[in-house]
Amino acid sequence: MITNPECAAGAFRSPDVKLKGFKIHEITGPAYPALFYGRRDFYKIVLATGHFKICYGDMTFDIDDTFLFFGNPHIAYSNEHLSPEQQGYACVFTEVFIGSRDRTDSLLNAPIFRFEGTPIVPLNKEQAIFVSALFQRMQAVYSGDYDQKAEMLRSCIDLIIHEALRIQPQNGLILKNAATRITSLFMELLEQQFPIETTSDPLRLRTARDFAEQLSVHENYLNRSVKEVTGKPISVHISGRIAAEAKALLQHTNWSVSDIAYSLGFEYPSYFNNYFKRTAGLAPNAYRKTKMEV
Fold first, then answer.
1. 71 vs 84: CA distance, rounded Å
2. Residue (of 236, 244, 283, 243) closest to 59 by Cα position
3. Which of 16, 150, 187, 249 counts the most CB atoms within 10 A of its CB?
4. CATH code, residues 9-167
């Protein structure tokens, strides 16, 4: 699911992240133990060289190369180190650290951070040298006493994101008009509901009407805008995201099928079984069994 030389997990939970909203760490040396599958409280960018099995949402990546990884706090991920050594850097930062609304919008809508995007960007030698220099610059600035260090760190983050998008262009939402704006808000609201972390807090927004009421717009206008911008009606986006979360829960939790059904807002497990089989081609238990055999 997601790649993560998430450098020392403990180091990233230190007070620095909470107080300053940013931390950078070199991850060269022996590989850390596999990290649990779950959501974090911060964004993460990792530059790493090594062999990793990364789980991100319902996707699994097997990477044995130099790459960038982009972690979104709203999307569950984990990583398993398959090589004894790792090399690279990792930085974490909060949404508050990014600052202004314009900058935050840009960050939240960067395709590499979104569920429908690809969070891993392979790098060639020249690209790795360039990105490594940016991480080294961030390390120096972070350790220094420059008055405007936060702004310099934000600029480095922006450069890394832009370099990744240049290397691996992805189809993202560009906020040009009201339709794209409301579509972006819908996509953000949809994504904020995931991952489902407990059976006691089930999915609440499941229909176009639910989202329209939340966004204070007419249901027809919202659906028309989303279809105009993305080419797909709201129902397709919602269904696809619920199906992806169902796959992730079947693969990464020991919850019963009934618990998963209720957590995703299905009134009866039989409804969920029919829904999942229609979208995935397999019954939930059969899908779980195939993943356990991999």
1. 23
2. 244
3. 249
4. 2.60.120.280
Which element (helix H / strand E) includes 120?
strand 120-122
Q: Which CATH architecture has domain 178-292?
A: Orthogonal Bundle (1.10)
Residue intervals of the chain classified under CATH 1.10.10.60 are: 178-292
Sequence-separated (6 or more) residues with CB below 8 Å from residue 263: 196, 198, 199, 201, 202, 203, 249, 255
Model pTM? 0.64
Contacts of 129 (CB under 8 A, 6+ apart): none
* Pair of tokens at residue 93: 């930062």
* Residue 158, CB-side half-sphere exposure with 13 Å CA sphere: 14
**Contacts (Cβ under 8 Å, ≥6 apart) of 119:** 2, 3, 56, 69, 70, 71, 72, 77, 112, 113
Residues of the chain within CATH 2.60.120.280 domain(s) are: 9-167
β 43-56/120-122 pair status: unpaired
Cα within 13 Å of Cα(218), Cβ side? 3
Q: Which residues of the chain have pLDDT under 70?
A: 1-19, 34-39, 100-109, 115-116, 170-177, 293-294
pLDDT tens per residue across span 97-148: 887 555 555 666 677 887 667 899 999 999 999 999 999 999 999 999 888 9
CB 91 within 8 A of CB 55: no
Instruction: Give yes or no for a contact between 135 and 68, defined as CB atoms under 8 angstroms apart.
Output: no
Q: What is the maximum alpha-carbon separation in the chain? A: 61
Q: What is the DSSP letter of 131?
A: H
Task: Show the DSSP H helices in 144-218 as ranges.
Answer: 149-167, 178-192, 208-215
Q: Taking Cα atoms as reference points, which of 229, 248, 239, 185 lies closest to residue 211?
A: 185
Under a CB-based contact definition with an 8 Å cutoff, are residues 203 and 259 in contact? no
